Amino acid sequence: MFVMGCGLFLLLNSTGNLPWSFWLRLLPLWPVCLIAVGLRLVFERSRLPAGILLSPVLVLGVMSWVAAAGPPATAWDRGRLSLHAEGPDDLQGWTLDGSFVYGDLELTSRPLPAGTLVTGEATSGHGKPHLWTSSGRSRARVRFRQYDRKHISILGEKWSGWRLNLAEGIPLSVNLDLALAEGRCDLRTASLTDMDIDGAFNSLTLLLGVPEQDVRIRLKGAFTGFHFQIPDGVPVSIKADGVMNVISGSRGGTGPGYRIILRGAFNRLDIEPLPEGAQSSSATSSFSSVTGVPASSS
Asked: Is residue 126 located within the same domain as residue 229?
């Protein structure tokens, strides 16, 4: 029963119906395993040997409860930090560089005030979320991190959440280094030039628009589910290097398109057309009212 139950949860992971971060949410509940072992020892040589079935029932019941509950709903109530990043007015391009473990990520491209690159909010169970800007002559880099050297253990509540609005109209490069993350990146109106996503045990949905030029997307890692929604008629080519990767949705065509390079193992990559009426990201985000205040920026 226990092996079949774990196999079922892994099947839900591999088909994209359950995020890989589910397994990290189970770690703080490890004492349940001791209770399960104790139940087996009590009933194994008793007059009720069938009572040992309570052991897998208990473990699988707790796993089902965690899967149904999802990420901590109260995490945003612990405190939110408003985020704001600006760059020079004459920028010719900028890079968004993000990294965190165990959390939720929402990126949405939208019109922002002149000179503003990022607004939004973040929260974290351990450590203070950081966002800062470095600028060159014609290009800026905005970095965000959830990191605290004093808290390196994963055996506790360490969920982090990022809700960021990204400026439209300026060529954008996205670099993400994630683990046990899930979320939605709506970049339909962004001037995306390239994207790199690295990490493991992630579940990400990415909405992209019609590109002005060929866009290279590099995906690397393991046990990650990528779900792309791209307008019909936009060419999508996929090159894979690895083992046990499940891929569907490449399409031909003429004109600028997306060139996806997938490296790693046990990943799932799906390409689907954007739903009708979803060609623009205006007013679709649940945090569209967040404008942010100058905090944690330089």
From this structure: yes
Specify whether 52 is located in the same domain as 103.
no
Cβ partners under 8 Å of residue 296, min gap 6: 81, 83, 84, 129, 130, 131, 132
Q: 44 and 88 share a domain?
A: no
Containing structural domain, residue 22: 2-69
Q: Which two tokens stand for residue 200?
A: 């493991």
Q: What sign has the CA pseudo-torsion 147, 148, 152, 153? A: negative
Whether 120 and 240 map to the same domain: the answer is: yes
Residue pointed to by tokens 């057309």:
273
Residue 206, judged by CB atoms within 10 A of its CB (0-12, 13-18, 19+), counts as buried
pLDDT digits (tens, 9 = 90+) for 197-253: 999 999 999 999 999 999 999 999 999 999 999 999 899 999 999 998 999 887 887
Whether residue 26 is found in the same domain as residue 58: yes
What distances in angstroms separate CA 139 from CA 18, 96, 148, 244, one per listed residue? 38, 11, 28, 39
Query: Do 115 and 238 have their domain in common?
Result: yes
For residues 195 and 172, is the Cβ–Cβ distance under 8 A?
no
Give the model's pLDDT for residue 73. Answer: 54
Residue where a domain terminates, one of 35, 54, 69: 69
Residue 64 makes CB contacts below 8 A (sequence gap 6+) with none
Q: How far apart are the first and last CA of the chain?
A: 55
Asked whether residue 281 is domain-assigned, the answer is: no
Residues with Cβ < 8 Å from 59, sequence gap 6 or more?
Answer: 2, 5, 32, 33, 36
36/58 Cα distance (integer angstroms): 7
Ramachandran category for residue 253: left, alpha or beta (phi over 0 → left; psi -120 to 50 → alpha): left
List phi, psi (to 5°) of 266.
Answer: 60, 40
Structure tokens at 257: 């398109």
